[in-house]
Write a structure and sequence with these properties.
Blueprint (H helix, E strand, L loop, with lengths): L3 H13 L1 E3 H8 L3 H13 L3 E4 L2 E4 L5 H5 L3 H13 L6 E4 L3 H10 L6 E4 L2 H6 L6 E4 L3 E3 L4 E3 L1 H8 L5 E4 L3 E3 L3 E4 L2 H11 L4 E5 L11 E2 L6 E7 L4 H9 L3 E5 L2
Parallel strand pairs: 4-5, 4-9, 5-6, 9-12, 12-14, 14-15
Antiparallel strand pairs: 1-3, 2-3, 7-8, 10-11, 11-13
Helix pairs in contact: 2-3, 5-6, 8-9
């Protein structure tokens, strides 16, 4: 487990991509010696990389790593998303850091049933008040989620009124995209079920593009993001018939 100082270090590194030891020392109010010790531990865990007096962010599917990127923004997005869920609803939550924070919020409400493909989310909810349905499939270790033909088959046999989905990128001339082809297949199967599909993503994802399309874009009903979203992206999403909820940082 990371202590609060190490969490702050990882968040600083992931938000800024590259941070010096001296800057981290100033932010956390501890010596550079202590910072180097923390960086050694975080590097051994595979959470960042050290390069000549700097800490450098890694691209990772580890939810603990991803959650530290723009954590306070993601928490606000999750709180807003939770407010859209009614008591008694059955909802689907896809894997991802913002969705994991949403699941934490909903776990306090016993009348809700959560369907997920995320092993991480299911474990976080083992002591929760709500009902949890974890779909089967091939266990994808790097993302801690279920994928593959069995997962797609399971999706055909469950129903839910809302689906909260994570993305890795959005480009105006392409649409929503994901980094992993197997996870993209799961998302596309969810979109096809015709529930109220809600994308939960901080604004850093907009402007990025990955190889796996999440379609059809017409199946997306709402996007919840923060006020760093460029106006052009917001306008295009609205033109495509998508409600856009913009939250302040």
């Amino acid at each position: 487990m990371m202590n609060p100082r190490q969490q702050t270090i990882l968040q600083q590194v992931n938000d800024n991509k590259r941070v010096s030891v001296s800057e981290l020392s100033q932010v956390t109010h501890v010596s550079e010696v202590t910072i180097r010790q923390d960086l050694n531990l975080l590097e051994k865990r595979g959470l960042l990389k050290r390069v000549h007096g700097f800490a450098v962010a890694l691209e990772s599917d580890d939810i603990d790593v991803r959650m530290m990127r723009h954590f306070s923004v993601k928490q606000k997005l999750a709180n807003h998303a939770a407010s859209l869920v009614n008591d008694g609803e059955t909802i689907f939550i896809e894997s991802g850091s913002s969705n994991a924070l949403l699941a934490h919020q909903l776990a306090k409400r016993p009348g809700i049933t959560l369907v997920t493909v995320s092993g991480y989310i299911a474990r976080q909810l083992k002591d929760s008040a709500c009902e949890v349905i974890l779909l089967g499939g091939i266990y994808q270790k790097k993302s801690d989620s279920m994928v593959g033909p069995l997962t797609l088959l399971c999706l055909r046999h469950v129903n839910f009124s809302k689906a909260f989905i994570g993305i890795d990128g959005y480009q105006m001339d392409i649409g929503f995209t994901g980094r992993d082809v197997l996870r993209a297949e799961v998302i596309n199967s969810v979109l096809a079920k015709g529930a109220e599909n809600i994308i939960l993503a901080d604004a850093s994802k907009f402007g990025q593009v990955h190889q796996n399309l999440l379609t059809p874009i017409s199946a997306v009903n709402r996007v919840i993001t923060d006020n760093r979203l460029p106006t052009a992206y917001r306008q295009q999403l609205i033109t495509q018939g998508i409600q856009v909820d913009i939250l302040s940082e």
